[in-house]
Design a protein that fits this description.
22% helix; Metallo-beta-lactamase, Chain A; six-stranded mixed beta sheet
Length: 324
């Protein structure tokens, strides 16, 4: 068995190999970063940090100031006792699963991942022969089953078009990195003007660099936002940003939109459950395809449900760092 320790909030350390996955501690000499969301960016103390080129650029734009060794997908990094390779994770642009080959067995760390992949990512791919899988189960309950990207993208475009035809401003509430650009990619065929929250705007340049079509977009401008499509985080709901735009119609775009109570919690007109994570059934099916010796389940408040379903498939599993 490969020894695993917690390293930071979401990170994992392989102390026998000096490797950190999205985190570091005193046992790690190098850290491999899965993607640029804040909860996965490592806090380091001189360790060498590896990330894909897109993740490196996004991390820098989000304020990360330490040196990063840019590493392409499928380009192995050799250490004294291991071989580490990034595979596309389908979560956001630059997201990677981390494959660690050792004499004790081969381990795949999923980070946050999505299959079918987000169309605003590099896709989803993985090594087929692994011994251990560390997999996120953010939506690890059977109530979570996603519609296809085609269906959800049609909902996004229809909401925007119908709202504009009513002389109102459509507002999409979503994260500034990843979800915002996926929504923009869905809207691009409409050829309508899109404004995005100021913190999300600089991140779009990386998507442009990697040839993801985000359509006709610009940074949020209070004076010109009316009549455009606005993309902004949900925490701006009650800010001055929206108070002067009348009328508006709002949509919340997230996997959590699958929970109907979010409509009243956020006071929105429409819920669109577009997620950049595996749904429950995608998670189980992927584990069945890989059928590793053991699955470690992370990023979930309760791993018992996933463990129950995996046991029915003859797959050994356990929760990893349940406090994460």
């Amino acid at each position: 068995m490969i020894t695993l320790h917690q390293a930071g909030y979401h990170g994992i350390a392989l102390p026998d190999y000096g490797i950190g996955l999205d985190g570091s501690n005193d046992s790690t000499s190098c850290v491999f970063t899965s993607h640029a969301h804040a909860d996965h960016i490592p806090r380091t103390n001189g360790q060498q940090v590896y990330a894909t080129p897109a993740t490196s650029r996004l991390m820098s734009l989000r304020g990360y100031q330490e040196p990063i060794t840019e590493t392409e997908y499928y380009q192995p990094v050799e250490t004294d006792r291991a071989r580490i390779t990034f595979y596309p994770a389908g979560h956001i642009l630059g997201s990677a699963m981390i494959f660690v080959e050792t004499d004790e067995g081969d381990l795949l760390y999923s980070g946050d991942c999505r299959t079918p992949p987000s169309p605003a990512s590099e896709g989803f791919d993985y090594p087929e022969n692994i011994d251990y899988l560390i997999v996120e189960a953010t939506f690890g309950l059977p109530i979570y089953r996603w519609d296809s990207h085609e269906v959800l993208f049609d909902q996004i475009r229809k909401f925007a078009s119908d709202t504009l035809n009513q002389d109102a401003t459509p507002v999409f509430f979503c994260y500034n990195l990843g979800k915002a650009q996926e929504v923009m990619h869905a809207l691009a065929p409409l050829q309508q003007r899109v404004q995005i929250h100021g913190a999300g705007y600089p991140l779009c340049s990386v998507y442009d660099e990697f040839d993801i079509n985000l359509g006709n977009y610009e940074a949020y401008n209070r004076e010109t936002v009316k009549g455009s499509i606005l993309i902004t985080p949900s925490n701006t709901r009650d800010s001055g940003m929206l108070n002067h735009i009348k009328p508006v119609k709002t949509a919340y775009v997230s996997g959590w939109a699958a929970v109907e109570s979010r409509r009243t919690q956020l006071n929105v007109d429409q819920l669109i459950p577009l997620s950049d994570h595996l749904d429950f059934f995608e998670l189980i099916e992927w584990c069945k395809k890989l059928h590793p010796r053991h699955v470690y389940i992370t990023h979930t408040p309760n791993s018992d449900v996933v463990m129950h379903y995996l046991s029915q498939e003859g797959i050994s599993s356990s929760g990893l760092f349940s406090s994460m």
